[in-house]
Amino acid sequence: MIKRVAEETLRQMAKQFRAVAVLGPRQSGKTTLVRYCFPDRAYVSLENPDVRRFALEDPRGFLSQYHDGAIFDEVQRAPELLSYLQQILDETTESGLFILTGSNNFLLQEQISQSLAGRVGYLDLLPLSIEEIDFNVITPDLLDEHLIRGGYPALHAQDVSTDFWFSSYLRTYIERDVRQIKNIENLQLFERTLLLCAGRAGQLVNYSNLANEAGVDYKTIQSWISILNASYHVFLLQPYFKNWNKRIVKSSKLYFYDTGILCYLLGIESAKDLIIHPMRGAIFENFIICEFFKARKNRSQREQLYFWRDRSGHEIDLVVEEGIRLRAFELKSGATVRDDWFRSLSFWKELTGEEDLQIIYGGMRDELRSNAPQVYSWRSKNNFFLPDLSGI
Fold first, then answer.
1. Are residues 165 and 87 in the same domain?
2. What is the pLDDT of residue 174?
3. What are all long-range contacts of 243-249, with beta carbons under 8 Å and residues at least 24 apart?
4. Are 161 and 117 found together in one domain?
5. What's the whole-number mean pLDDT along residues 98-124?
6. Are residue 214 and residue 193 in the same domain, yes or no?
7. What are the C-alpha distances in Å from 237 to residues 47, 257, 287, 297, 303?
8. In the chain, what percentage of residues exceed pLDDT 90?
9. Are 50 and 128 in contact (CB under 8 A)?
10. Whole-angstrom distance, CA of residue 370 vs CA of residue 103
11. 29 and 160 in a common domain
């Protein structure tokens, strides 16, 4: 089994909550993790039609089989079950009695908030982080190879073609999961929207423009991006709003949770293609920002990640809020440090007075300088992804 950072977080949650929900995209390793952490718990897959039918038709009878608790896998397939689970959790003092997994945050959040609020802890399990790939000794040495392969465990545990795997994965997602979330009649238009989103990774979200290109209305695009977000395929990075300068951009930026899927959607088939691709910089930026998300979600910590841009063109790729302090990051895919990379950070320092300034780039060596932003390699062993809690 590939060792996961979230393992310790999951064990700690199971000591504090009567139930724990492990959520994340399909194939991110949820089932493997929970079965490894709780080998004595009965395992029940609600993907099984017979099991699911029993759970839906006779929920009380179904739950009566599991006095000692259980793992309910893909529980979004029978979300009504959670209402009946509430009474069981209210009548017990045992922690970690039920472990729930789900790949559909859209359906589960509403059901859990209605039925199990205060009784369940949440853990989001995303595809493998660079930290996890490193300590499992399975990291591709080259940046572009890593960006194309992404972080889904199956692509690191097995020798499989990324093209075949992503093709099958997306077909399953679009034809099955999307229909489960919302009955979308025209799946071709939804798939076209997904491709259009890939072409806008790292850019401000313009719903009107997306709607025009996809051939649907504004509200439909908003709904579909919500579906992509709820199923852990895209996320929106919010702007930092503090008014040092009132002429700031207030739209969100769109990113993908996995660069492997992003590269596949963009038709990038090899590292050689990626090196010369016009979106390589955006893909690298996507990769690094997602690593910050993974580091925090694996430890169930608040994200507090933003970007900042004003209408004069000044921009900080990533702003990390930690207490009363802000950390500012510029993300550059190039392998050679250039002087013009420091300009935005210099402007930020002058504007805000903040001095925690860092550049993460596509080279292989850290370049730690005095009286200047620190420059870290994407392969750096410094934990710049993790929250810096000193002084908070």
1. no
2. 78
3. 244/351, 244/352, 245/310, 245/351, 247/310, 247/311, 247/312, 248/308, 248/309, 248/310, 248/311, 249/204, 249/309, 249/310, 249/311
4. no
5. 77
6. yes
7. 32, 11, 13, 15, 10
8. 65
9. no
10. 46
11. no
Separation CA 133–CA 251 (nearest Å): 33
Say which CATH number the domain at 62 has.
3.40.50.300
- β-pair partners for 383: none
Tens digits of residue pLDDT in 306-339: 999 988 888 999 999 988 889 999 999 999 999 9
How many residues belong to the chain?
Answer: 392
Record the tokens describing residue 335, joined without a space. 């392998």
Beta strands in 103-167 (DSSP E): 120-124
The tokens 């559909």 sit on which residue? 104
CB 218 within 8 A of CB 93: no
pTM for the complete prediction? 0.92
Domains held by the chain: number: 2
Give, in degrees to the nearest 5, the angle at Cα 77 between 74 and 82.
Answer: 85
Domain that holds residue 63: 6-124
Residue 142 and residue 195 share a domain: yes
306 contact partners, CB below 8 Å, separation of at least 6: 237, 238, 239, 240, 318, 319, 320, 321
Residue 17 shares a structural domain with residue 114: yes
Alpha carbon distance 141, 379 (integer Å): 9
